[in-house]
Amino acid sequence: MSFFYSKFALNNLVKNKRFIVPYVLSTIFTIMSFYILSSLAFGDNLNKLPNGIEATKQVLSLGIIVIAIFSTIFLFYTYSFLVKRRVREFGLYAVLGMTKKQIAKILVLETIFIAITTLVVGIGLGILFDKLMLLILLKLFSATVTFGFSITPIAVVFSVLLFGGIFFLLLLYTVIKIARLRIVALLKDENKGEKEPKSRWILAIIGLALIGYGYYTAQTVQNPVKAILVFFYAVIAVIIGTYLVFMAVSITVLKIMKNNKNFYYKPKNFISVSGLLYRMKRNAVGLANICILSTMVLVTMGSTSALYAGMEKSYNERFPRQIMVEGYNSTSDKLKKIENNAKISAKEAGTEIQDIVAYNSLPMVGRLVEDKFNFESNVGVDLSNVKMIVVLELKDYNKVANKNKTLESNEILLHIDKKGNYNHNNISLNGSDYKIKEKLSEFPGALGSAAANFMDTYYAVVKDDKEVTKLATKLTDLSSKELEKRGISIQTGIPTVQNYVAFNIKDTDKEAKVIENFKKLEKENSVNIEGKDENKLTFRGVFASFLFIGVFISLIFVTSQVVIMYYKQISEGYEDKGNFEIMRKVGITDKQIKQSIRSQVLLIFFSPLIIATLHTIVAYPFIEKILRLFLVTDNSIFLQALAVTIVVFAIFYLIVYAITSKIYYRIIKE
């Protein structure tokens, strides 16, 4: 008997291949992608690279989480569609004498067959293409490639556990679905459409308000850190608003068009508006899903490709010179010693230093509100107006910038990195008021480490060391613990400074030797030295990983989108077939029917793309500010990446439309 059910289930899968094959193929691709990312993140292939690649693995791990969450949602959505499309078939089985238990058993066997097939093929393809993807990833950040073949057991285990768990939940869903349906409901359920919301005006207003909130937030947020904090809420609002727009706003607009008698009672408009009302009633959720997936693809590919395109510029900003030395909690006299040790280290390595920058500074983190900056040792969770102020003396600035500027005691020069904005002509630094004599467009001695901070860095040039000391000794009434946090000497109340020495070397290939020699001379833990080349692999690896994951996730989004579009066209084809037969019988010509179909399909199909493009364009200020945190400060790079992404995706969308429309028309004519 079990053999009979197994054979019956296999025959059903073959018979319903028009519905099953796209689902199986997309599931295989998703499993393959999950295995590959898991293998790269948790396997040992990347461990063989020099300097380690932990940052890259962390980025890959984020991609795994995204794919896992999305795979669960997508597989449930498509599987529920498959079950709904076949309820008439299940009803026929019931009429022929099958019990619900027997029908459920067949569906369970079908699910098991699909699960085994997709897991075996998906993991197999993942193992097959794993090495190719590793080579591509290494190529992206110019690392040396290694050859060989390997299987990552932990990736296999994770893939089986995740997708095995998803299929187990689908089995439960199947059994519950069949158990709750009556025979009559089984026969009618296929023809049920999406229920039209009762309070359409209220839902329409809420939907537009949510999207308006997201749009307004994107346009008004100014601080990159705050952009991250509010980005999540704005995205959720726009997603919910998008669903409501398709479910309520579209129907409300169509109802208004229908109530316009002069417009509605024309053959072309009558057919189109009535058809669209029926389609939107059934397909609002599906169209919203397509729109959201399209937005995800555009944002993901636009931002990750912009990150990669701007990688070299970001790299040079993070490491402005070949070697950088920073002395923490130090003294002014220490600067000269660091310079001498750097020269000795280079000489012993057989090279010499060039383009040296050396100065003392007082870096302090605090909160800037309007034109008032106050130091804070604990800024808390809200980083929206937290800034770093790097105070340095005028003589050091003139030496570094090769200038001859002058200042009074109550004047400063101000430079802001990351394209931050400061719209005041005065600034108060911990109670000391200064007039901004000049806002500097550049500062050639900018700290490389500060470029990697989440917050903007303000370089404040004051007249002399008296002003530096005055700024710091404002804190002497604090406890010794607080003073230490803020870089103040407990014994004297005099600020401890940060030494910064950065330089190039004549022979760049001797960087490692210079660093090694310097560490032998400078054994204090408070001095840190880093080289441009030694960080090259890790830095580029992070940016390349973002692009790699962006492409992977976008491909999964696109695959899911194609499957949803395909199912939507098939579903509408079967549901519209009888309707158009009735239209022919009442005298509507084939030409009018074709015009109606074309106008409806075009509007239905391209409305998600249009709204997705609008979402992406409006989100530009959001994304641009977040990219600034990754040192991508050239807006033209992101705009170009976004424009190319939109054009390429629109072309792809047209191709999918052309293919699925042919399937739709073929079903109509059958």
Describe this structure in words.
With 670 residues, the protein is an alpha+beta fold. The protein has 21 helices and 10 strands. It has helices at residues 2-15, 17-42, 54-85, 87-95, 100-140, 153-180, 183-189, 200-220, 224-259, 261-264, 267-309, 311-318, 334-348, 394-401, 465-473, 480-485, 511-521, 536-585, 590-618, 620-628, 635-669, and strands at 323-330, 353-369, 372-375, 386-393, 411-416, 426-429, 432-440, 457-462, 497-505, 527-531. The radius of gyration is 32 Å and the shape is elongated.
Distance between the amino and carboxyl termini: 37 Å
User: Which structural class do the helices and strands define?
Assistant: alpha+beta
Which radius of gyration do the C-alpha atoms yield? 32 Å
**What average pLDDT do the residues reach?**
76
**Percentage beta strand:** 5-15%
Largest sheet: 7 strands, mixed, barrel
Give the SSE map.
Elements: H1 2-15, H2 17-42, H3 54-85, H4 87-95, H5 100-140, H6 153-180, H7 183-189, H8 200-220, H9 224-259, H10 261-264, H11 267-309, H12 311-318, E1 323-330, H13 334-348, E2 353-369, E3 372-375, E4 386-393, H14 394-401, E5 411-416, E6 426-429, E7 432-440, E8 457-462, H15 465-473, H16 480-485, E9 497-505, H17 511-521, E10 527-531, H18 536-585, H19 590-618, H20 620-628, H21 635-669
Parallel strand pairs: 3-6, 4-8, 5-7
Antiparallel strand pairs: 1-9, 1-10, 2-3, 2-4, 2-9, 5-8, 6-7
Helix pairs in contact: 1-5, 2-3, 2-5, 2-6, 2-18, 3-6, 3-18, 4-7, 5-6, 8-9, 9-11, 9-20, 11-18, 11-19, 11-21, 13-17, 18-21, 19-21
